[in-house]
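Appendix B, example 12.
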Amino acid sequence: MKRNATAKWNGSVKEGKGTITTQSTTLNNTQYSFSSRFESGVGTNPEELIAAAHAGCFTMKLSAVLGESKFTPTSIETTCTVNLENGAIAGSHLVVKATVPGITADAFIACAENAKANCPISKALNTNISMEASLV
């Protein structure tokens, strides 16, 4: 399986602007700029997209790992924060809260650690990945 996205940019890095379009067109000529990346301007940015990808991938992997352990989650919510420092991604932090009937806290943490280590986005990132996991 292959997926693709296209980025277009016009102008200098600070004054220019660009768009990102994904294969599915969920993002369709979505704006990004220096301001949306390094300040608080309107639009997306690469780090936000990495955070979304990591949160989504980890959450699905955790559901799969729980299923392999014979648990069915009622809900899983993951927030991912990607930290950009000195021009490099310096870390990705996952905060996961889940409702999983019948699981112990220790078993849940073990499943979450497994998902953190083995989701495809975690494997692709060359950075420290930290996590807080709790049952709710």
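Residues 5-38 form one domain. Residues 46-68 form the longest helix (23 residues).
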